[in-house]
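Can anyone check this?
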Amino acid sequence: MALNINIPGYPDMIIQYLVLDLNGTIASKGEIKESTVRLINALSRHLQVFVLTADTFGKAGEICQGINAEVTIIEKGREKEAKGDFVSKLGKQGTIALGNGMNDELMLEQSVLGITVMGEEGCSTRALKKADVLVKDIDDALEMIMNPDILKATLRS
């Protein structure tokens, strides 16, 4: 399983992993849109998908029900470092990460392609500075990954 992404000015990317932040990125106000579930499940046919969360409200399992992804609970109080370490262990060259918060900045930086999602809950400027791309909605980010020609138009040099 992998996606090949070729962008002029970037090294060729062979993507194996998609790492997603839960709250504020794929979920807004504790809910994931049906369209987002469909897109994540479509990408899971090509990539191994992980959802990272500290599960502050204890509802990650319920929120992520129906998503073809491995939900990984990370240590509270060390979210930023834990997310960065998680992506580092997967390997920068094969990983795309999506996030919106200050605690996502290291995972965005550690991935070959970091996408910050503005979304309804906004985004941290620190996450924005570590990202390669900013999108207004999670579905835009997922569609961009599914159709790398959109990425080419955004990132080519």
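Reply from J.R.: I decoded it. The chain has a mean pLDDT of 94.
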